[in-house]
Design goal:
302 residues; alpha/beta; Adenine-specific Methyltransferase, domain 2; seven-stranded mixed beta sheet; 14% strand; binds S-adenosylmethionine
Length: 302
């Protein structure tokens, strides 16, 4: 059973994280969750895993399958699962360095650590996985808006965040996350992997990089791979395969109708399935004018 005695929260801030939408998503979860019929949980676009952490407090899954294509983020979950003690030590050290630095030198410290992280990304070295993970968490807590964005060379390029008092090492939560992850299958790779293990006792939650709602609204560069309309269609096929297996499937995405009421991209793609529209406040968006309340879609096959 996936259970933990402590309250667990996402340990990464994540662009597109579902934290603010959970109350609305909760209204549309499969009723079979309450009857105990659902034994396996799948989150194939893991990121910060907001729904995974929230659901794990409410329901006892026998297993969870968590996939993330970004190797640095995937590694982070694996290190928390297998090497939590060493990670906490390394992260406490980084926190100490940060808070001992004068206000002026915090910015330089950030860019030094960013460069150290990028050396790891360039070399793809398999050693020092703990150091790499500690750096990723450090950067996530001290960079601008907790973004994870890379340039065309795959280098992390988010600027310093100027936070007054960031929590860099939340030890209690990281230990609780580690405990929760003991029964999880964590793997680096494509969302389609879920087809191998999902069955009629599975709940699959897809939270892919959103389809940009305008040319200026794109913030989906979590990795150097692009998630374009072809990818959205490939995902639709996987959704259909899971539906045939009688798995319970839920998918989030942007709503093109915010910009163009005649754009039926998702309504057409998922015709025949239930589509709900949720109210979201977008926090990370390069176009400041579009930070108001907008709708996002939720597609269910049940
Ligand atoms: C919208 S974010 C997920 C946010 C997450 N649900 C949360 O609450 O924080 C989408 C994630 O999918 C990952 N991703 C992109 N393409 C993928 C693929 N083909 N297979 C698996 N993961 C992918 C990205 O790296 C990113 O972390």
């Amino acid at each position: 059973m996936i259970t933990t005695t402590r309250q667990v929260r996402p340990f990464l801030k994540w662009a597109g994280g579902k934290g603010q939408l959970i109350d609305q998503i909760a209204l549309h979860l499969p009723p079979a969750l309450k009857t105990g019929r659902i034994k396996k949980y799948f989150e194939p676009f893991l990121g910060g895993g907001a729904l995974f952490f929230w659901l794990s407090e409410q329901y006892d899954f026998e297993s969870a399958y968590l996939y993330e294509i970004n190797p640095a983020v995937n590694l982070c979950y694996q290190v928390i699962q297998k090497n939590i003690g060493k990670l906490i030590k390394e992260l406490n050290q980084l926190e100490l360095e940060y808070f001992s630095a004068s206000e002026k030198s915090k910015e330089k410290l950030y860019y030094d650590k960013r460069e150290e992280f990028n050396v790891f990304l360039r070399r793809k070295a398999s050693n020092s996985v703990v150091r790499r993970t500690a750096l990723l968490i450090f950067l996530n807590k001290t960079c601008f808006n907790g973004l994870y964005r890379v340039n065309s060379q795959g280098e992390f390029n988010v600027p310093f965040g100027w936070y007054k008092n960031p929590t860099i090492c939340n030890e209690d939560n990281l230990y609780a996350v580690s405990e929760l992850l003991q029964k999880a299958e964590i793997s680096c790779g494509d969302f389609s992997q879920c087809l191998e293990y999902a069955d009629n006792e599975s709940f699959v939650y897809f939270d892919p990089p959103y389809r940009p709602i305008s040319t200026t609204a794109s913030f989906t560069s979590y990795s150097k791979d692009i998630f374009d309309d072809q990818e959205q269609k490939r995902l639709r096929k996987v959704y259909g395969e899971l539906d045939k297996k009688d798995a319970f499937v839920m998918l989030s995405n942007s709503d093109p109708k915010n910009i163009n009421p005649d754009d039926n991209f998702f309504d057409d793609l998922y015709r025949g399935h239930r589509i709900e529209r949720l109210n979201a406040r977008r926090l990370i968006n390069c176009n400041a004018e579009r930070r108001g309340v907008i709708t996002e879609i939720l597609v269910m096959n049940y």
